[in-house]
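User: As part of a screening pipeline, I want to sanity-check one entry by hand. Below is the sequence and the SMILES for zinc ion. Please return the complex as structure tokens so I can compare it with the automated output.
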Amino acid sequence: MIHHCCHLMTLYIDDEDMIVLYVPKFRQYGIQVLDGGSSYIEIKYCPWCGSKLPESLRDRWLEELEKLGLEFGSPEIPEKYKTDLWWNTGD
Ligand SMILES: [Zn+2]
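Assistant: Here is the complex for your manual check:
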């Protein structure tokens, strides 16, 4: 279970009707683009408490997959790379 910077961030991320989202596999926060797709715009600071959010791991994620010879969207991507299990050791 990840701890977000503040109560409001946690509240809004847990609320599926809100446009703020958290992508566990990339440790990335974003604002949804309401075009019916799954795009979002990354945010680097919390809109409510102003905290700097943790560095996104998206580039590292892509590097890890590259090492496995896999590409973004490949059906062979191991389960742990679909969640935060590949970086979040639980502490
Ligand atoms: Zn916050």
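Points to compare against the pipeline: The pocket of zinc ion is lined by residues 5-6, 9, 46, 48-49, 51 (CB under 6 Å). The chain has a mean pLDDT of 94.
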